[in-house]
Amino acid sequence: MNSDHRIGINGIDIPYSLSHRKVKRARLEFRAGRLNVVVPKSFPDHEQLILRHKLWVYRRYTDSLATIENAASKKLVGRSDGEFRDLVLSFTNKMADELGVMPDKVTFRKMRTKWGSCSSAGRLNFNRHLMHLPEDLVEYVVFHEMAHLIELRHSPRFWQMIDSRFEDRSH
């Protein structure tokens, strides 16, 4: 059962959907720029859960708004599979020298919810839909995944690495 709700955080009215499901733990997730709150059927106070994580919710929501606004000014690129692979691999090699790490394997596939991923085994996966994005955004995603070879989680240390190279980007 999904229902639409709103909560005010730092002066912004944030919409979210609430789902009561047969789960063990409550969770907050962002999908396509929207907050989803998933709680066990008998969960007492979902708003308290959101407010306990209000800084995270606020950052993710405002980042998604900024991303949508930024995307409106971008033009899609026509690149072949080969050109895309060469671009990603050239960024990977350049960043391997820069960061002192090398991925075990680099693969390309269509993904529905992610631009890229990094496994604990050092394998990088890139969404084939990246081929349509401008080069600077492809570079950002490749660096983001390469940084995960050093720091697997989105920790403060991880974001310091990202910020050291892309100071003008929000995350």
TrEMBL record:
Superkingdom in the source lineage: Archaea
Domain YgjP-like metallopeptidase positions: 83-168
InterPro entries (alphabetical): UTP_pyrophosphatase-like, YgjP-like_metallopeptidase
Xref: PANTHER family: UNCHARACTERIZED PROTEIN YGJP, UTP PYROPHOSPHATASE
Name this protein carries in UniProt: YgjP-like metallopeptidase domain-containing protein
Source organism of this protein record: Methanococcoides vulcani
